[in-house]
Every structure is written in structure tokens, then in C-alpha cells.
């Protein structure tokens, strides 16, 4: 309890923590958080250790850790699983989708935020209401209309157009249709003085030059947060790739899901596949944790 002597006022002040009631609340909340932490960590840890077990041990023994553990055994399991799964193509597909989604998101959502914040065109208030309203729309009701629309782009009706299914465009452009990101950009641009925009226009800069040369560099925290979240999406989304892509163009999460019914893949190899697919997400969080947590605060408090 010594570390709370200078604790700022919150749910419990430093003085209240010294009372029996304060100590009871503290240890109650601590116990609850500890249980939640175990509930979140144990399934991931169980997946990891099961990936290194022999198949017979998975079905035959009720043990948490493998009975035999050594560096050579672990190395052999990783190499054998990698060769059996052949994940090079799915990983490359996921990288392509990640980069395409990032480019489309920054351009489309950034332009949307600029229109709502700085252009002040007629009817911008109504447009902003529609953007906010789209966040309340359940994603499930858009599945069928979107599927039809991408098959007859841009008419959204079976009268012609281009069939963009089995391409990465529906996934990348769907990722860019993110109302939350548009609002983030708008709020970030609102905090910047209009004098920057007016001075750039007097110097002869185009609207695109104002966005990408002035507003974007001044909104670096938002750019980083949106980029991290956008890159994270294709490594965890499996439904959209399975809906629009053929099996040879599947991204990594879709491949992991499809292997669930593949009887040629042993159970421990399937668990190793889930471990492989989790590595990019873990690396993204480890290296960009500060920006991710900062973005949560940015999204919760208007600048």
C-alpha cells in the first residue's frame, strides 16, 4: 500500500485506502482483475503449449504442459508444422490486403475528415449526422447489399458494371469505409487553426497539398493510431476474405479457419497454425503499445 501514499483522487483516495473499507474494496477489485487476467491468458497459453504436444498426448493425457520439453523437440515441431501448413502465400496475401487497406483508409477517411472539418460545404452538418448514424447500423445488414454491389460495381444492381469479387478491392475499400476513423480525423483537424489552411491557399497550394503536406504531418498521433488499427485488421478478420475471395487468394485468418475441417492436418499442427497467425498481432501490439493505448484515449476524449 506504500505506493498509494501520493495517489491522486480517484475512486479511492490515498486516505480511504488506509481504512478497512478501502482495503476491502482494493483487494476485491484486485482479485476480480486477477481472475479476468487469468481467463484471458490461459486459453492463449493452452493453445501455445498444445501446439508442441504430440497428437497422442493431446487425446490421451489430461496435462497442461507437454510431458517432454526440449529445444530440439520444439524446433522440430515448428519446422514440421511450417512445412505442412505452407503459409507463405496466405501471409503474402494478408500483407497485400494490409498495405492496400492502409492506403485506402488514410486517403478516403483523411479526405472525409478534411471535408467535415475544414471545407464547410453546404449540408456538411447533415453529412456528419449520416456518418455518425452509420456507426449505429449493425454490420450484418450490410453483408448482402455489399456482396451484390461488389459484383456489379459501381451500379450496386445486376445491370452491368465490373465484378470485383475475388479481388482485394472489396476488402481494402470496406476497411476504408470506417466512420470512426473519419470522426477521428475530423476531431484532429478541428484542433488545428484555420490559418494554416488559409495561408496554404494564399501560397497557391491545392486542397490535396493542404491535406497531405500540412494537416497530416500535424496530426501524426492520429495517423499512427489509424495505421496500426488498419494494419491489424486483415490479420484477424476471416469472414470478409471468405466472402469475396477464392480459396487460393485467402488471407491468413481465412486459411486458419478453413483448415479446421481439413482431416489431413493433425490437431497439434492446427494449433501451431493458430500460433503462427497470432505472431503478427502480438508483434504489432508489442512494438506499438504506446500508440495503441494513446489512441484509445484520443478516441474517448475529443481534442
TrEMBL record:
GO terms for cellular component: plasma membrane. It is a multi-pass membrane protein. Keywords: Cell membrane, Membrane, Transmembrane, Transmembrane helix, Transport. Belongs to the binding-protein-dependent transport system permease family. CDD domains: TM_PBP2. SUPFAM superfamilies: MetI-like. This is Carbohydrate ABC transporter permease. The chain crosses the membrane at residues 24-46, 95-116, 123-148, 168-189, 210-231, 269-288. Its main location: membrane. It holds the Pfam family BPD_transp_1. GO terms for biological process: transmembrane transport. It comes from the Bacteria. Residues 91-288 form the ABC transmembrane type-1 domain. It comes from Candidatus Ornithomonoglobus intestinigallinarum. InterPro entries: MetI-like (IPR000515), MetI-like_sf (IPR035906). It is found in: Cell membrane.
